[in-house]
Amino acid sequence: MTADTSPDVLRTTGPVLDCAARLFAEHGPRSLTMSTLAHRIADETGTDTDSLHRAFPTRLDLAHAVVLRSTRERVEDQLRADRQSDPADARVCALVRHHVQTSWKHRTAVELARDLMPTLRAVSPGRYRQIAQLHRDYRLHVRDIISAGVGEGRFHVESVEAATRSVLDTCDSLEWYAPDDDLSLDGLTGVYVDLVLHHQLGHPR
Tens-digit pLDDT profile for the chain (205 aa)? Predict the structure, then answer.
């Protein structure tokens, strides 16, 4: 990475945001000052400290960039990958696998988002709405797939809205997971696919 990079580039640069996410996870979202964060990120990524300060004047700016990137990746990648011509059960399987894998990849950002969103809602409503809209788009996407599955006779649920909430809550419940020889990430996604498809959506085996 060049020493002096534009703020617009830095706000979406993977190594910078990955490093920031790890530092937030290790030290908490409020423990390190922005100056300390900038110096630590600069040391680890080779980015110019002044460039980091221009891109992220405050710690909130940096946290927002971390959460926005991870949310966009989960939502926009899934929307692009969805094959609407496929049967709903195949679409759900693909969605759950993508959700679990990207949530694990960005687990530090997902945890940061839980702390950040109430703060953004209070002090930066525009940024809050930016991320909240992505979440709404994703929820509507999941609901539409489940509704399609009900229409196709593949899913059997009492309420599409309740099933949507249940599926999303399940896919977001990764706090307990630690990869080991007994349960790899691929194995975990298989467990979640089975739970969602057969237990929550009533798809016959």
Answer: 444 455 566 666 788 999 999 999 899 888 899 999 999 999 999 888 988 998 899 999 999 999 999 999 889 999 999 999 999 999 999 999 999 999 898 888 888 998 999 999 999 999 999 999 999 999 999 999 999 999 999 999 999 999 999 999 999 988 889 888 789 999 999 999 999 999 999 998 8
Residue 63's Cβ-side half-sphere holds a number of Cα atoms within 13 Å equal to: 25
Q: Please count the other Cβ atoms lying within 10 Å of the Cβ belonging to residue 56.
A: 25
- Render 155-203 in DSSP notation, one character per residue: ---S-HHHHHHHHHHHHT--TT----SSS-HHHHHHHHHHIIIIIIS--
